From TrEMBL:
The keyword Oxidoreductase does not apply. Pfam families: FCD, GntR. Residues 16-83 form the HTH gntR-type domain. It comes from Arthrobacter bussei. Keywords: DNA-binding, Transcription, Transcription regulation. PROSITE patterns: HTH_GNTR. It comes from the Bacteria. This is FadR family transcriptional regulator. SMART domains: FCD (SM00895), HTH_GNTR (SM00345). GO terms for molecular function: DNA binding; DNA-binding transcription factor activity.
Length: 239
């Protein structure tokens, strides 16, 4: 019987899964300190570890290099960089750090960032959001209330990510919107690390609704104050 060729699309899918696995494995090792600053990697060593071709290893190394986790050096190979060099805004770096021993510090840093950005974004959204965006925020606020009271944490998480992303988008500031992946990772991390109560607190549900209402009615000060209150509760819960 003649062997059937593997469809090109399937080959591409397998390659993507494989490279993702390798990148995640090495990225997590670096974030955890298993591969500490100054550790040296070689293409040949990685080929043996993962059982893949040089091409696959090089593709993965380019990704890690783009995050500044490693840097190629002549006669040394691929050298692991210090945390100060990492692209700490990359969503994958954030995920690895939240999964590692530095989880508490990463949550603190991300919460400080959110407190610096999101209240201002909410105030700008109250000024610049479109009619559709204002109505959608009201819908999302109501959905968060329903899902939170029902204890549907995974659905709550998806809606919460959309809520905060939409506020960044509605602000009209493209630099705020560029943080959407960061916000999504910290929200996901809090839920998946077991730091969210099964039923979100009433304060969190109420302030989400208040922020949505303030933005919808064009009240920037109320939107900013409400978001600041929400994130103060987040900081308290994490600490």
């Amino acid at each position: 019987m003649t062997a059937q060729p593997v469809p090109a699309g399937r080959n591409a899918g397998v390659a993507t899964v494989l490279t993702t696995h390798i990148i995640d494995a090495l990225g997590q090792d670096i974030a955890d300190g298993v591969l500490a600053e100054g550790a040296r990697l070689t293409i040949e060593g990685l080929q043996q570890r993962f059982g893949v071709s040089r091409t696959v290893v090089r593709d993965c190394m380019r990704v890690l290099e783009s995050m500044h986790l490693i840097v190629p050096k002549r006669r040394l190979g691929l050298v692991v960089q210090a945390p100060a060099s990492w692209n700490v805004y990359d969503a994958r770096v954030i995920r690895w750090r939240l999964n590692g021993p530095g989880r508490a510090g990463q949550f603190r840093s991300l919460t400080h960032l959110r407190r610096a950005v999101e209240p201002v974004a909410a105030a700008l959204a109250a000024e610049h959001a479109s009619s559709d965006q204002r109505l959608r925020l009201l819908d999302l606020g109501r959905d968060l209330r329903r899902l939170g009271e029902n204890g549907d944490l995974e659905e709550f998480l998806a809606v919460d990510i959309e809520f905060h992303t939409l506020i960044l988008e509605s602000s009209g500031n493209e630099m705020f919107l560029a943080l959407q992946g960061v916000i999504a990772e910290v929200l996901s991390g809090r839920t998946h690390q077991g730091l969210m109560p099964h039923h979100p607190k009433e304060h969190a549900l109420r302030t989400h609704e208040q922020v949505a209402e303030a933005i919808s009615s064009g009240r920037p000060t109320a939107a900013e104050t409400g978001m600041a209150s929400l994130l103060a509760e987040v900081r308290s819960a994490i600490e």
